[in-house]
């Protein structure tokens, strides 16, 4: 059911991104809570419908909870966000650095999690930075039962691997650590690294490896303790960025080795 309502507080339309003014009539989906102009309804072909064969994903969980049953074990949400960004975002300046509208990011993340493995198309999201925000927010929200409580998928990466002065030895240590990650974490990391390398090579994006490492360091690499103090967070930040920069320095062929099998599984349906 998609009832009409009168807007009391101006909010952005999930289709066109412009604000729905106070007192205007809007449409809100009862299932995913997406809000849109009445005139934009025809441009939003993916309003929620019951999906009896697909279960909603949990609001939070370990990466394996979202991964498919066959390799590569990359969640459909990650694949679809990356595909959308690479389809129409590689000419946008500041990918992953420029924030998308917080409310749209939250609404689309909620919509995708509710949909489970049968995701609605992201083509109706006008601002590609919102898609980037959904991907980052999904990765930040992962929960890993590693003794540290809530943690992103790369908590297992030790800083020691990046402190080895010899590049060849450091690469060997990093490859070893990556290969020991849980399969879903490893495959998703490989898929993401290949994507970020493509972003870094786009002259229009102006997001080199250093910039991307600063953005994704805190998202991908956990803290040294379960409940870090503000001082620990500040001290961890350079290490987190350094780890991601070293990961991005590994050759693409290394990352492709984890995701090139059953490549057709990475095509969003």
UniProtKB/TrEMBL annotation:
Signal peptide: none annotated. GO terms for biological process: mitotic cytokinesis; mitotic spindle midzone assembly; Rho protein signal transduction. One of its GO terms (molecular function) is metal ion binding. GO terms for cellular component: centralspindlin complex; cleavage furrow; midbody; nucleus; spindle midzone. SUPFAM superfamilies: Cysteine-rich domain, GTPase activation domain, GAP. Residues 1-48 form the Phorbol-ester/DAG-type domain. Residues 61-255 form the Rho-GAP domain. Transmembrane segments: none annotated. The keyword Metal-binding applies. Keywords: Metal-binding, Zinc. It comes from the Eukaryota. It holds the Pfam family RhoGAP. This is RGAP1 protein. It comes from Regulus satrapa. The gene is Racgap1_1.
């Amino acid at each position: 059911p998609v009832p009409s309502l009168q807007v009391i507080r101006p909010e952005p339309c999930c289709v066109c991104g412009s604000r729905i003014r106070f007192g205007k009539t809007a449409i809100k989906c009862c299932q995913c809570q997406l809000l849109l102009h009445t005139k934009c309804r025809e441009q939003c072909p993916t309003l929620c419908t019951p999906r009896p064969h697909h279960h909603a994903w949990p609001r939070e969980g370990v990466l394996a909870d979202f991964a498919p049953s066959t390799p590569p074990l990359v969640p459909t949400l990650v694949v679809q966000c990356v595909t959308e960004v690479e389809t129409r975002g590689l000419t946008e300046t500041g990918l992953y650095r420029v924030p998308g509208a917080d409310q749209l990011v939250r609404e689309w993340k909620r919509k995708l999690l509710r949909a489970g493995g049968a995701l609605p198309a992201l083509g109706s999201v006008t601002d590609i930075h919102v898609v980037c925000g959904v991907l980052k927010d999904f990765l930040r929200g992962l929960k890993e039962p590693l003794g540290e409580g809530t943690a992103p998928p790369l908590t297992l990466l030790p800083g020691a691997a990046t402190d080895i002065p010899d590049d060849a030895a450091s690469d060997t240590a990093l490859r070893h650590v990556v290969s020991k990650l849980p399969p879903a974490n490893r495959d998703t990391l490989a898929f993401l690294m290949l994507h970020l390398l493509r972003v870094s090579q786009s002259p229009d994006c102006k997001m080199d490896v250093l910039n991307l490492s600063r953005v994704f360091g805190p998202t991908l690499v956990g803290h040294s303790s379960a409940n870090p103090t503000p001082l620990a967070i500040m001290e961890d930040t350079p290490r987190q960025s350094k780890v991601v920069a070293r990961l991005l320095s590994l050759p693409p062929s290394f990352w492709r080795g984890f995701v090139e099998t059953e490549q057709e599984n990475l095509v969003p349906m």
